[in-house]
Task: structure prediction
Amino acid sequence: MAHAAETSASVRGSAQPKSAGRKEPRVGFEGWMMAPGLLLLAALSIVPFIALIAMSFSRVRLLGGVKLDLVGLNNWARFFTDADMWLSWLRTIIFFVLTVGLEMVLGIGIALCLFRVLRGRNILLGLLLLPMFAAPSIVGLLGRYLTDSTFGLYAWVLRGLGYTGDILGAPVSAFAAVVLMDVWEWTPLIALITLAGLSSVPQSVREAAAVDGARGWMTLRYILFPAISNVLLVALLIRSMDAIRFFDIIWVTTNGGPADATKIVPVRLYETAFRFFDLGYAAAIGLAMLAFSIFIARTFVRLLDVRGLTR
Result:
């Protein structure tokens, strides 16, 4: 037994230097298998991005093949001096604040109501999530028919309340209509994320708060909301990224009208590129949208990092 133990110890001792001196490869077998796909994805992302930057400093000609004529900063100077473009940015910001704000408020409220439901929660949640699974273009078509001044259900209800105008024919009502369509479709996503965060709060914490006398609003403010704040920031980030490039519902319902009342930046970008074929100016608009999206994303990520450090 002693001899066997000494033999095994000597074998382990002789094997340790060999394993200690061996360097593990930086890229494993899985990495080499994924490399072709990653390189292809990188090429599909980097090459168009470089082309977009080149187009933003050029005038793009399409007749006789694609040609780029360098114009320097003309497209960017036009971007910063275009009054219509600044109005589109103003509409985009208003649309962004209204949609994301309403979705967060309604989604959190619905999640709190569902969180208190003990029986039939799954059935209610399934019914609540139905709008989220519809394509935005389908939501736009549905909203267009429901707001039609001739046979639309919502138009009929509003006529009963005294409103006789065309919902999608007036600037203010058309803008409100597309905002509410987006809110109707994506509020369930906020509710689902919030409900998942509420379900992760330990039962013992809520019971301890109840024993200490916390009721109603105090429990929400001091127990539940701090516990799910990071979850709410993630939900806010997801919806913000979608709201910035919102396009489908507006294009299906109003085409940016009436009188450009719903022409936000993505709609103007589409018209500039594929209606007027001003691809150089469209590239500048697209890069500005990308910069705005990165700014929003970095802001929320920084908030998440700060909250993670303070906990």
Remarks:
- The longest strand covers residues 58-61.
- Confidence is low (pLDDT under 50) at residues 1-20.
- The chain has 14 helices and two strands.
- The CA atoms of residues 79 and 109 lie 40 Å apart.
